[in-house]
Amino acid sequence: MVGNCCLQPKMLAGVILLAAGIVWGGETTTTVKKAASPEPASVQTKRAEAIQGDDKILPDAKLPPAKKPVERKEVAKPGESEHLVPPLVWGANDEWKLQFGGSVQIRNEYRHNFDMRSEIPDNDHLSFVRTYLNLDLTYRQIVRTFFEVMDARTWDANTDQMQTAHWHVQQFFVELKDAPDSPWTLRLGRQRLPIISEGYVWGLPPVEYYWWNFVPVFDGAMLDYKTKDVQAHLFLLQPLTFATIRDGVMTTDRPREINRMWHYGFYGQFKTWAPHTVDLFLLGLSDQDDDRTWPAPNLSEQRRNGTTNRYTIGTALRGPLKKFESGTLGYGLAAAYQFGNWSNNEIKASMLHADINYTWDKHPWKPKLTLLGNLATGDRKPGDDENNRFNPLFGASHYGYGVIDFFRLSNIREVALQYDVQPHEKLKVRAEYHHFWLDSRTDAWGSPIGLVFGRDPSGQSGRDAGDELDLVFTVKHSKRWQSELGLAYFLPGNFAKKQGRDDGARFLFLQTIYKF
Fold it and tell me: How many angstroms separate the CA atoms of 123 and 153, rounded?
């Protein structure tokens, strides 16, 4: 049903940009002083006599009470609004509202020795630019139409980064509510996933920006339920891909539906037991094309192309453990299990996350120290008719596994130490140390940016992948403007060295995003 109703970019005729003016209104407060009762004539005569002569007040003369000084109250300056352009409102009781918005994200990267082979001259100095323009129309807070276009560009890259698409529809959906204050919302059309605090396998991370130029988008339907204590989502979506074939070469262009592929399930986040937060999810990803060739075939270990059905069930917990005089000890836990079929192979995969953290609440810099660990299974044994490689689905891949992006939540064992401080209200600093192993000696080491650093089917290369050091400075210039400067160094381990990758990799980036 959803597949037949999904919106295509060719259905859109254009975008009308509306400019709106702002009208200032003021309030005038008038203080009316109550008139005093007239004094008797004899009293007025006596008071007049008391102030005659050589301008000295006689003892029996009484002055009126002194007036209190006028108290001046500072008018609070309005805070910075979320949007640069004010909304256009019209209709009875301003029942219609149209808001224009968007954002621009620019990142400059310097990649040195990303293949960890210094004899190969592949250093790269490149830039990414992503621009969003959107129109948000609401009627009585019960009907909302959202339209957004995206332009993504890459400059000066040595190779195609698969991150380029010029002015295509990113989102186009309608939201329906039965009342303005109703917790229920039905969203139909092209849309992104909502923001989720953990986002290991689903949802966008709770940050000011998304690292990659392409944010996952879907066509379909999502039913939301949101209250103070609950954020729940029930959905049936069709994933889109930016990949396409042009002149026989894989590249990127406008987003297209992947026919016969569906993403569905439930994700709920509960704060009923505040200050603890509990996530529960059951997710499905099915591809019913048993002869797929694009964007990639579903080949089993026996090289057989077939259908796939991957089901993910899991939970996440986060909250404080104990309050101390100097700060708070907190924790985070997450676990997920995947099952189903990949062509004629059985899927059995899992992931675990655990962290313990301490925040010095009373210190002006709010230091926070976090020790964390991640585990995501890899394929145990080639040719055993079983697929054990964990798939992070549509979770965040940049956050939590190192800034240099050599790892994602798949075939990984990780221990990391993070230290956060805020020396100024507009400045945050994070330092990280990561050590990585492969979970399976015989499975591949792949990265979220498409790099494959090798696979040893014999398992003789071991698990030790390497160490990473990161340092990131974040400056919040204003509510709409934020910048980041980051540095990273990766030192290869035994596995990498046995693949001929024995030289360190360096990474430097400068990024800024402005919302309007």
Answer: 20
DSSP symbols for 378-446:
---STTSSEE-----TTS-SSSSS-TT----SSSEEEEEEEEEEEEETTEEEEEEEEEEE-S-TTS--B
The answer to whether residues 109 and 508 touch, using CB atoms and an 8 Å cutoff, is yes
State the sign of the Cα–Cα–Cα–Cα dihedral 360, 395, 413, 313.
positive
SS (H, E, C) 45-87: HHHHHHCCCCCCCCCCCCCCCCCCCCCCCCCCCCCCCCCCCCC
Q: Is residue 29 part of a domain?
A: no
Residues forming a β-bridge with 249? 246
Burial of 242 per CB tally in 10 Å (0-12, 13-18, 19+): buried
Q: How far is CA 216 from the centre of its chain?
A: 12
Considering its fold, how many domains does the chain have in total? Answer: 1
The predicted-structure confidence for 56-88, as pLDDT tens digits, reads as follows 333 444 445 555 544 444 444 556 788 999 999
Residue 204, in any domain of the structure: yes
Domain that holds residue 451: 79-515
Q: Is residue 57 part of a domain?
A: no
- CATH number for the domain that contains residue 117: 2.40.160.100
Whether 406 contacts 468, CB under 8 Å: yes
Distance CA(440)–CA(494), nearest Å, equals 14
Contact 352, 415 (CB under 8 A): no
Nearest to 412 by CA among 481, 349, 357: 349
Confidence (pLDDT) at 56 = 39
Rounded distance between C-alpha atoms, residue 412 and residue 378, angstroms:
7
Domain assignment of residue 54, yes or no: no
pTM of the model: 0.82
Phi, psi of 120 (to 5 degrees): -100, 120
